[in-house]
Amino acid sequence: MTLFFNFAKITPLSIMLMVFRYIRYLFRAKTKHGIHSPFVFELVTRVLNDQKQHAEYQQVESLRKQLLRNGNTIEVIDFGARKGNSGYSTYFRKVNEIARRAAIPVKYGRLLLRLIKYYKPRTMLELGSSVGISTMYQAMGNPVARFTSVEGCATTAEYAINNIKMLGLPNTRFVIGNFDVVLNEALSGFESLDYAFIDGNHTSEATMRYFNAIVELAGNDSVYIIHDIHWSPDMETAWQQICRHPSVKVTIDLFYMGLVFFRKEMSAEHFIIRF
Length: 275
Fold this sequence. Notes:
- This protein has 275 residues and is of the alpha/beta class.
- The chain has helices at residues 12-28, 38-48, 55-68, 95-101, 106-119, 133-141, 154-167, 179-187, 204-215, 233-243, and strands spanning 73-78, 89-94, 123-127, 146-151, 172-176, 193-198, 218-227, 250-253, 257-261, 269-272.
- The chain is globular.
- It has ten helices and ten strands.
- Helices cover 43% and strands 21% of the residues.
- The chain has a single domain (12-272), classed as 3-Layer(aba) Sandwich (Rossmann fold), CATH 3.40.50.
- The strands form two sheets. It has an eight-stranded mixed sheet with strand order 5-4-3-6-7-9-8-10, sandwiched between helices. A two-stranded antiparallel sheet has the order 1-2.
């Protein structure tokens, strides 16, 4: 696996700590042969280890390549973990740099698509569209689902919106603004939420705030995904809190992201699986 970093300032110490966390994960992680839960074993066998070349991959990755060739420089507004005293920070980035460094890697984008194809959620939420690469994978997983994607930066969201239009996915809508301000709007009309992907402000406080806002909408078959659960010790704290949440029954740590299930018929179990 290639270790992935967002635009947070990379220092030798941060790289060393990330490598340490990944090595710790590898020592703890199991393969499907060490899993005794039928539910998780089936998930690993049919979704995580699925080697089929789904037709949707090519459609999304063709548009990803276009973004990687786009040398335009845009102003990015960041309400996330690097925000300053103003509550946000701004900086200039090239579109291809965002697509290369801040977008979800192919391996994990494909996983999101497969998870959605497998569980077939009818209502979906994403917190953090960026330029829309993860959004495309998810929207293609179930084009008939009601899918809302929330992005803080209007400039990057414009690329996401255009790419979704090019794929012809009319059921995907975008809400633009600070998550803390617009989340209620994004959730309006949802009586339940079958699927959520949280990839926003990478602090434990913000992550738990978003999770607590949507967990009341979780049904028995819902799956929520938390991005970058080992991005920092602070994010690891958030992941531990989510694992202990009374509504959560099964969690799966894939290092780069964590899967959360709410199936009441199951005993609480927490898995670390090599992916």
